[in-house]
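Notes, Module 5: Reading structure tokens.

Key idea: the token line is not a picture. It is a compressed description, and you learn to read it the same way you learned to read a sequence, by spotting repeated patterns. We will look at two proteins. The first is printed below with its tokens.
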Amino acid sequence: MKIATLLSYAGGFKEAVEEIVGLEKAGLDVVWVPEAYSFDAPTAMGYLAARTETVTIASGILPIYTRTPSVLAMTAAGLDYLSDGRAMLGLGASGPQVIEGFHGLPYTAPVAKTREVIEICRMVWRREKLQHMGDHFTIPLPQDKGTGLGKPLKIINHLVKEDIPIAIASLGPKSVETTAEIADAWLPAFYTPEAADAVWGESLKAGKKLRDPNRAVLDIFAGGAVGIGAGMEPHREKGRAGAALYIGGMGARSKNFYNDIFSKSGYAEEAKLVQDLYLSGKKDAAAAAIPDDYLAKSSLIGEEAFVTDRINALKESGVTTLNVSFIGSDPSERIHQCERLKNLVEKL
């Protein structure tokens, strides 16, 4: 199993990159660079390419609505060149509050648009003259639109590799099915190995039936916070506020993907309660309503034997890469936790 983490630049962007350099030496395999409505991801990814040597640098995630498919392809190709083949293009639909509220774009047809974006990206990377006639993207623009001067073009540069891995952050049944069919990697949310089959099993099976047999097995990223050692269990409490934010407030009452997943994972009553509390302004009460059972199952925090059992459960459920954050008050402590996790993984 590989180890991945999300770049967190709350304490300073350059400081976060320095920590990734240390984590890389400790055994980190993949770093995700977030993009919600903060700094853009590609700028940070280019900087990481210059400061690291071995880690895969992945956008985590670039919304499919905010850039043209060609720009997404060019961005990934440019990063892949700068990093000597270490790029991964992480794509997702984000949600209507961000896409419509921050970008001013309509949140429509996320699954169909994702499929077309991937088709176009792979065409660009193969250096084919770009011609795509889809329901959502038409390239070149038809002659009865614009100036009429558009013509099929191919990317100028010769790429490091023509098949840059594509990861999709998907949650709903149809989007997960599409991910299993066409993507190289999958980033689920609120993943617990005990509930994974009940929540996503049918969608994954349906997608895999349609998958190109020449593509590698889908890389599944899941894990949680890592704190290995005696007396670490209280650190599970740190997951409450974040879980409450997503389950309770990341979306409208009628459309919250994270709440749906949490409900399907065996916490239907708790999902409704957390959302009711959060949307009524009782954020602390919402956090307190997150079940202890979920906090344990969704983390890698505890004695070495407990963490080993959780890693094995994740592996048996199909997870191929541990997607984690590291507990620690400073970089050295977090790097130490990465080393401990790497040692456990190597013993499997």
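Here is the second protein, with the sequence above and the tokens below, as before.
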Amino acid sequence: MTLQDLEKKAAGDDEINWFTGTVMVLFHIGAIAALFFFSWKVFFLALFLNLVAGSWGIGMGYHRLLTHRGYKTPKWVEYFLTVCATLALEGGPIFWVATHRIHHQHSDKEGDPHSPIDGKWWAHAGWILVGKSMHHDVTTLARYTPDLAKDKFHVWITKYHYLTTIALAVVLLAIGGIPFVLWGIFLRTVVGLHSTWLVNSATHSWGTRRFETRDLSTNSWWVAILSWGEGWHNNHHAHPTSARHGLRWYEVDVNWYGIWTLQKLGLARDVYRIKLPMKESVIERAPAATAQLAPAEIIVPPAPQGDFVSI
């Protein structure tokens, strides 16, 4: 399978992605229905699967490993985290990584796929439902994901990313029936999607700023809790390749704890992170105009060397 096999007709700039929209509506209906089948067993099932898909998959896998190369792992670990990420129903790795690298290159200016400058609803979910979304042409994918495009597994799983969710649904149905499916697939997926989308909308709209980045990124503790650590977004935009986003002990960053654990187990190396000075002051939110000055980031991040970089 080659990158050209991923080519598909994308919606126009103002067209509704009817298939995506229909799936989103059905999943939200299923999430509401799940509330009528509550038990502590299904609650903890959904919580665990959210950890697997949202933290191991999206945070540790798609974001900090594949997109920014903040650390290295053996290929089997990389592939395992990628499979976990597909359970979040946020698309395959090539489309996800390409979209996020585009976001960093054009953060909060023309070309950013999900900036609140175009509206907070657009940044949250509108960009998924209208326009090209993550369905870029192969030329764009080749430009932004040359590292993944050369990997046959990533090309294959990008095309068939939905199969893991179907397989999990079948297993859950066999084990626990409809309640397991409603909580483990529908409600868990909806919570995970909105948690990820809040990073695009809320942490470019409200919060505090530690670094004078030339975009609108902010740090938000409550988004960090919901997204397993991705809410320390100003920290991330200031140092995109850092595998650790919560830079102080009180900045809860579950995704970093997972990477740290992999490092201690000998399954992660060349882990890049930032060491803050002992004293600092949190700056106020920068004016929106500064977002227009954001410099382009390297499309494919270089592999970081060493454990610490002082600032």
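Summary for the second protein:
- Residues 35 and 286 are 40 Å apart (CA to CA).
- Confidence is low (pLDDT under 50) at residues 284-299, 303-311.
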